Amino acid sequence: MKLYPAIDLKNGKCVRLMQGRFDKMTEYGDDPVAMARKWASLGAEAIHVVDLDGARTGIPGNRDVIKAMASAVRIPVQTGGGIRTPADVEELLSAGLARVILGTSAVKNRGMVRTLLEEYGSRILIGIDAKDGFVAVEGWESGSGLEAVVFAREMASLGVKTIIYTDIATDGMLAGPNLSAMKEMIEQSGLEVIASGGVGSLADLLALEEIGASGAITGKALYTGALDLAEALAVLKKGSTC
After folding, report:
1. 201, 179 in Cβ contact below 8 A?
2. Alpha-carbon distances, residue 215 vs 5, 197, 236 (angstroms)
3. What span, in angstroms and rounded, lies between the C-alpha atoms of 127 and 165?
4. Which residues are catalytic?
5. Where are the alpha helices (DSSP H) in the chain?
6. How many domains does the chain have?
7. What CATH code is carried by the domain that includes residue 9?
8. Among candidates 129, 128, 106, 107, which has minimal Cα distance to 116?
9. CA distances, 36 to each of 6, 8, 11, 43, 220 (Å)
10. pLDDT per position in the chain (242 positions), as tens?
């Protein structure tokens, strides 16, 4: 299972939200490029970056710094948040981002998803952020009325191979991921599922690996020291060779 350190950006700074709430935000640094280099130096195989300003408003707010992050490290950087058009996707991929994540735009424009998959294939991921089993959009502030598992199956039918599944209620809480929801998604979607939300310990990562998650995203646990990146990577690597 691949581990993705998360760097969430708001106004050019590294932040973390609690349960997706912008009024419960903690800053962890004002140099995202240095943060990306830090995680890469500790052995990260990939980095997950979210433009929170873009996700909330649909207008990119941190694109230049995201491009600089991708240029600063020699590992893949994937990004989501505010990616609404094919031009957005082309801009980011041509600037060196390894993969882009479609969230709100995937809910609102299935045809665009199909077209982008035909052109870019596995470089297109779908982010499914769920609250009580239903997909949330626009920075988690609006509901869609779509059941998460049903939407995931629809994405699979379009050719999507990998999704990032976030349980909003657990995000930033360090109280453990929603394993039952993750397991249901893994088993019923037929997709590779990168789990996001709630990881607070090495035990949480091992539990996600056990239920079949292809990857896990962790942010707050790394920033607070609850999880040591180098140790976690070593344990996961050892498990994959057993």
Report:
1. no
2. 11, 12, 11
3. 6
4. 8, 129
5. 32-41, 52-57, 63-72, 86-94, 104-108, 110-120, 148-158, 179-189, 202-210, 220-224, 229-240
6. 1
7. 3.20.20.70
8. 106
9. 9, 11, 17, 11, 15
10. 999 999 999 999 999 888 777 878 899 999 999 999 999 999 999 999 999 999 888 889 999 999 999 999 999 999 999 999 999 999 999 999 999 999 989 999 999 999 999 999 999 999 999 988 899 886 545 566 899 999 999 999 999 999 999 988 776 667 799 999 999 999 999 999 999 999 999 999 999 999 999 999 999 999 999 999 999 999 999 876 54
Q: In terms of residue numbers, what domain contains 158?
A: 2-240
CB-based contacts of 29, cutoff 8 Å, min separation 6: 13, 14, 35
Owner of token pair 């909330």: 56
Mind giving me the DSSP string for 147-193? EHHHHHHHHHHHT--EEEEEETTTTTS-S---HHHHHHHHHHH-SEE
As given in the structure block, the two tokens for residue 111 are: 């045809």
| 228 token code pair | 């040591």
Q: Which long-range contacts (CB under 8 A, 24 or more apart) does 229-238 make?
A: 229/3, 229/5, 229/39, 229/42, 229/43, 229/44, 230/42, 230/43, 231/202, 232/3, 232/202, 232/205, 233/3, 233/42, 233/43, 233/44, 233/45, 235/202, 235/205, 235/206, 236/1, 236/3, 236/205, 236/209
For tokens 């009580």, the residue is 132
Longest dimension (CA), the chain: 45
What pLDDT does residue 238 have?
84
Residue 30 in contact with residue 72, Cβ under 8 Å? no
